[in-house]
Amino acid sequence: SKLIGIMGAMTEEIELFLEAMTDVKKNVRAGITFYQGRLYGSDVVLCQSGVGKVNASVCTQILIDDYQVKYIIFTGVAGGVAPELNIGDIVISTECQQHDIDASPVGFKKGEIPFAETSVFAADPYLIKLAESYRPEDETIQVVKGKVLSGDQFIADPEQVAELYKTFNGSCVEMEGAAVAQVCHLNQIPFVIIRSLSDKADREAKVNFTEFTKVAAKRSYELVNHMLKQW
Ligand code: ADE
């Protein structure tokens, strides 16, 4: 079959999914609650990983080992990095990279995982294809494909954003995607990260994140719904 793991980090990122699910069975592992059930004709396991790369990694490995999910979709919000993107726009990951790994004193590039075969993890072409046919009702919302950057930092500084854009050419920045991507790569599980912008990772990020997380999380949810209905 095609059991699908759906992950979010925060309550706002998973609650709409949980409301829409049927036949829900609940299980807790490593402090994370997993909701097994049905959603738009698919068998899914929904979970709230918690924030950051460690939480995301643990959660991803449990989805793979204990639930044998065949695909993983991460849904949630991010800060904008590409200057043409606005709050509410949606990014479909083409690839993911950790922006905060840095062994440059011993000769590795910033963002490079020492001794690993790759540090940039490609999302699954089929999942990207399911996602990119989405057309929001509001035609002012941009839906783009791009690189998702992740680190254990909430970015709220325009100079840091400019640096991330220049160094890694990211579309958005968040705190889980590249960890999910790396664990999926290690286990050969197809994944995609869907993120709608709650803020632009600048001086207004704190205020905007508070105001726009709910609406951005809903936009990501709508896109993932579209994917499930296409499947
Ligand atoms: N998630 C949403 N906005 C973010 C930001 N500015 N930095 C990191 N993660 C985020």
UniProtKB/TrEMBL annotation:
<dbReference type="InterPro" id="IPR010049">
    <property type="entry name" value="MTA_SAH_Nsdase"/>
</dbReference>
<dbReference type="GO" id="GO:0008782">
    <property type="term" value="F:adenosylhomocysteine nucleosidase activity"/>
</dbReference>
<protein>
    <recommendedName>
        <fullName>adenosylhomocysteine nucleosidase</fullName>
        <ecNumber>3.2.2.9</ecNumber>
    </recommendedName>
</protein>
<dbReference type="InterPro" id="IPR035994">
    <property type="entry name" value="Nucleoside_phosphorylase_sf"/>
</dbReference>
<keyword id="KW-0028">Amino-acid biosynthesis</keyword>
<feature type="domain" description="Nucleoside phosphorylase">
    <location>
        <begin position="4"/>
        <end position="228"/>
    </location>
</feature>
<keyword id="KW-0486">Methionine biosynthesis</keyword>
<dbReference type="Pfam" id="PF01048">
    <property type="entry name" value="PNP_UDP_1"/>
</dbReference>
<keyword id="KW-0326">Glycosidase</keyword>
<dbReference type="InterPro" id="IPR000845">
    <property type="entry name" value="Nucleoside_phosphorylase_d"/>
</dbReference>
<comment type="pathway">
    <text>Amino-acid biosynthesis; L-methionine biosynthesis via salvage pathway; S-methyl-5-thio-alpha-D-ribose 1-phosphate from S-methyl-5'-thioadenosine (hydrolase route): step 1/2.</text>
</comment>
<keyword id="KW-0378">Hydrolase</keyword>
